[in-house]
Amino acid sequence: MAAWSGGSCLDALGPGELLSAAQAVSLPAEAYGNDPNIEMVWAMKAMQHAEVYYNLISSVDPLFLRLTKVDDQIYSEFRANFGKLKIDVLDPEELKSEPAKEKWRPFCMKFSGIVEDFNYGTLLRLDCTQGYSEENTIFATRIQFFAIEIARNREGYNRAVYNSAQQNGAAEKDSTMSR
C-alpha cells in the first residue's frame, strides 16, 4: 500500500478522478459500489487522520487531550460496556469477531447524532506504544477509535508515545548543541 511508504496514492489520479472521488466521499455508502478511486480517497483520509492524531499525542501530554465535546460520555459508556477490555495491546478479535461486533454495535449506535461521522472508518493502533504501521493497525469505526483512544489517554497508556517523543526531542536538541 503506497500510503505506508510515505508517497501519495492520490498522485496516480487525474484531476477529474480526484474531483469525482472527493464529491462521492460525501455521499452515503449505498450510493456507490467498490470504486477503487473512492476507496483510495477513504484510505488517504484515514491515513491523514492517523498521522495527525499520532503527531498530537507525540507533542501534547495525552492526559490533557480532549478528542470530542463528549469525551466524558464516550469514556463512561465505553468502560460501562467494555470494562475488562485490554486497551494497551488490542486483540483484533475483541473488535472484529461476530460476538464482538454484536457487543460493539449497540455501543456505537448510542453515538449516532451525537458524534459526527461516528461510523466512518478510521485506523486504530493495536499496540499503543507503537506508531501506525501495516502490522500495528486495524480498521475500526470512528467511535471505536474515540472510545479506545480516550481510554488510553485517560488511563495513561498513550504517555509512552509522548514520553518517547519528548526524550527523542531532547536527545536531538542535545546533539545539535554539542556540534
Description:
The chain has seven helices and two strands. It has one domain (2-177): Orthogonal Bundle (yst0336 like fold). It has helices at 15-25, 36-59, 71-81, 93-96, 98-109, 142-154, 159-177; strands at residues 121-125, 137-141. It has a two-stranded antiparallel ribbon with strand order 1-2. Helices cover 53% and strands 6% of the residues. Residues 1-10 have low confidence and may be disordered. It is mainly alpha-helical. The chain is globular and about 45 Å long. Helix 1 packs across helix 2, helix 2 (36-59) packs across helix 7 (159-177) and helix 3 packs across helix 6.
Largest sheet: 2 strands, antiparallel
The percentage of residues in β strands lies in 5-15%
CATH superfamily: yst0336 like domain
Helix content range: 40-55%
Shape: globular
Number of domains: 1
- Kindly provide the name of the CATH class: Mainly Alpha
Name given to the CATH architecture? Orthogonal Bundle
Tag the structure with descriptive keywords.
7 helices, mainly alpha, two-stranded antiparallel ribbon, 53% helix, yst0336 like fold, disordered N terminus
